[in-house]
Every structure is written in structure tokens, then in C-alpha cells.
Fold these 2 entries.
Entry 1:
Amino acid sequence: MPKLKTNSGAAKRFKRTASGGFKHKQSFRNHILTKKSSKRKRHLRHNSMLDHSDVAGLNRLLPNS
């Protein structure tokens, strides 16, 4: 049986929390920021939790986390 490999793209984007969920950075905050309002950019600062329906799929991508 071969070793399980971690999906490196997912590993860079998601971190597992102590309770078993995943946190991730909000998207749309990298470039073309001049046309986005200050309020919109401010709300995108904070980390967000992954929805519980997506956790099972991410567990397959990150078996060793």
C-alpha cells in the first residue's frame, strides 16, 4: 500500500483547527483593490471557517493534518 500524499495546494490554503474544522483566508483580497470599497476590503481581512459540508472532501486532500 503506498503512502498517502497531502495535496500541497490545499495544505497552503487551509489549516485544521483543534475542533476538527478548517480555517482559510478570504479570497478577492490580492489585487485590483482600488475599485473595491474600504468596507468590502475590511470585511475580507478576517479568516473564515470552511462549511461543514466541505470538511469531508478536505479530509481526503489533507490526510496527515
Note: Helices lie at 8-13, 38-43, 55-61.
Entry 2:
Amino acid sequence: MKTPTKPIKPLNLILLLLVVVFTIFSCANKKEDAPKKIAVVISTLNNPWFVVLGESAAGRARELGYEATIFDSQNSTSKEAEHFENLIAAGYSAILFNPTDSEGSVSNVKRAKNAGIPTFCMDREVNSLDGPASQVISDSFSGCVELGEYFVRKLNKKGKYVELLGLVGDNNTWNRSKGFHSVVDYFPELIMVAQQSADFDRSKALEVLESVLQSNPDINAVFCGNDAMAMGAYQALVAAGKEKEVMVFGFDGADDVMNAIADKKIMATVMQSPKNIAKTAADLADEFINGKNDFSAKTPLEVELVTQENINEFGNYGSKK
């Protein structure tokens, strides 16, 4: 014979309901209390300047109360796309993004936007004004105009030089090159004997310049689109015994180049502070998460020319001011 089920007493029922309600609210509150997450996606961590950019961005995000994780795209657009898929699925609140390619990275930014996740580009642009919430970039063109003027003065308006370009798919490559040539090309006795890409990479710059020197041993200067390539170029010149007679110019303000300028090995660079770029991007992301949504498409930051004459005014990755 089936034993009849005892009815739940009203008091016990009330207590049971209270336990259920308390459990639901506790879970909800834990979810609300958990810090929101900000992703930092960097094109490559095989470059000290980008390491500082990534760590500074993550550090500032943590100061603002967020969980922050750095992702390395290893200069691969496919790896970058994989990161974005995972970040969207994981429900990150914002992405601080250093793109691998100005065109190839657009789809990743738009996919994040469609998922309700804002992207703030750092240092490098993507070719989209409506994809990123904002793009925090250095004024590469103006910086290389100033560098070009200094280049002309140091070479006394004549001589042979080589230009090492960065990644051909990166807008910074061409903004820097155009700024430089907007000055240098007005001096017909300054002759560019070679212009080749070294992908912003130190080892590749070493190889490229070694090859160029075989057919052009009498160059007077090398203009490099970043400091990693400047150090590679300098290594090639040392190997060829030409480091005393060929001037090297870079762009970034990286630690090793700043030291090389102080040691009078490299002539000049343009300082763009990765710490300032990272802080600005993280602060903008925090504003977005807290309700602001009307940002400028681009947030340009000033850069400064660093030479052997004014090197004492600067520290690594930033001005002492």
C-alpha cells in the first residue's frame, strides 16, 4: 500500500522559499560583484616595445578594477581572429587592441562590436572609422617630418641612404615613410639606394641591410621605421665595420635604442610612449564601460624627437618631463 505524502507545513514552505530566494540573490550578487574583464590583444610580444605596451595596458586596467589578460597574436591575423572568437565567447567587457594588419584586422573589430564589445586600438590603426570605439595612435607622420628635417641637417643635404620599412600592411609603416619623404625628397642630392621591408623585426633588418650593403657599400645613413629594425641595422653595420661612418635613425623610443643614442651609436629616434598610449586606451575603455559612448574616431598623441643632443631629457619609453 502506497504511503501518503505528508503535506509541507506552511512555515516549512516559507523557509524553503526563503532559502531558494536567498540562493538566487546570492548568485546574482556574486556575479555582479565579480570584476569585469578587459582583454589586451597585442600583435607580437617578440618586441620589447610591444611588451611594455601590453603590460602597461593590462596594469592600468587592473588599477581601474578590472581583470586583465594579455593575448599574443604572434604577428598572425589568423591567431588574432582566434583570440577574438574566444574573447567574445568569454564575455569580455572591452578589448585593448594592437592590430596585426590595418585591413585584415577590420573584421575582428567589427565582430566584437556586433557582440557589444568595444575595441580600442593602440599604436596601430585599422582601416575602419566605425569599427573601433576609438584608435589611440601616435602622430607618426609629424614625428617623421621632424626626424626628416634632422636627417637632412646631419647629412648636410647630400648622401646615399637606405630605408627599412615595417610591415607593408600597417598604416604606421606608410605614415612614417611619407612623413620622412615629405621632407627628404626635396633634396636631390639625398639619394635613396634601397627601400625594403624588414617587417619591424630586428633579425630581418640585420639580414636585409647585410644584403643591401653588398651592392651599396658606400651608404651614409639608414632610416628605419622602428627601433627594432634600427638595432638590427646597427648590428649589420658593426659586422661590416661601418658603424662609425653610417648614421642610423629609428622610431619608437625603445630601451636599447635610447641607450644606444646615449652611447653615440645610433643618431636619433622618435619617442612615442607605449605607457601613455596604453594608459589612454585603458582610460577610454573604462569610460565606455561606465556609460560614455561618444568618442573621437582617432585619439592622436604627440611624439618627440630624441637625439644625441637631448637624450638626457628622456627616460626609457617616455619623457622625463
Note: The chain has ten helices and 14 strands.
